[in-house]
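Posted in: Protein Modeling Q&A

I'm a second-year student putting together a small comparison for a lab meeting, and my supervisor asked me to include a predicted structure for 5,10-methylenetetrahydrofolate reductase. I've never done this before, so apologies if this is the wrong subforum. The sequence is pasted below exactly as I got it from our records. If anyone can share the structure token output, I'd also love a short note on what stands out.
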Amino acid sequence: MNPALTVTPAVGAALLDDFSLEMTGKDVPRLEEAQGSIPRGTRINITFLAGEDLGMRLAAARAVKRLGFVPVPHISARRLPSRAALEEFLSGLAEDGTADNVFVVGGDPARPEGPYPDALAVLRTGLLQRHGVRHVGISGYPEGHPAIADGTLWTALTDKTAALGAHRFAGDVITQFGFDVDPVLGWLEAARARGVHLPVRIGVPGPAGVRRLLGYATRFGVATSASVARKYGFSLTNLMGTTGPDRFLHALAHRYDPERHGAVKVHFYTFGGLRRTADWIAGFRQAVRQVP
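Accepted answer (user: helix_wrangler)
Welcome! Here is the predicted structure, written out as tokens:
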């Protein structure tokens, strides 16, 4: 889909300034290839996946900084085997000058691999501020979580928000991706009503193959009904094509109200690759500038 067909100036002004991206520890070569399409100073989250070791995670954060971007290393609470492992990771980040920003998430394991059952437990250790962390990202789930009850999710969000305030961290919320703007906007209003006034980065998939997107959606419990798919711009009966988030961003921009929804930006999940996502965003932003 041609982004110029659907974008409006409001998209760039309200949402696409200061967007963020996501990469894995193995994606440093891809980031080097994509760097020319990414504005300097862009926040780039670095995931904390199984199969990646401490050295790879630290090297990725150093590379993000070296290339002129802001590294946001993830800390997966349930993947940490010990307090010592958390301290070693934070110490390494601090030594490299990459500890200012982190994103703390519960993580995928059904059972914690160490002493931290959730992100809040990590926030309460006192280790983040001790190692120079200043800004902490936390997660939000507009469409819920397949393994966590909605009430538990809301309690976790409000408790983590309170913990950030108590420890005087700056922070934001990064949401799980979705294909439908309706639950995102409803969740934003509900979060603000519960006293969560942190800036929110709405998770958006970069352009990718439909089959790949549906695979991630199934894994994370994201709704993919036929009507939702049509609204986003793909068909459940044709899985061979690719699709981007232009319709989603168009709808979000037109319905976004700062008074009701608070401060909102966009976070891109690079399922289709960093270079592809970065080039798509650059083209989208250029189209915005050309709209009269």
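A couple of things worth pointing out for your meeting: Residues 76 and 107 are 5 Å apart (CA to CA). The radius of gyration is 18 Å.
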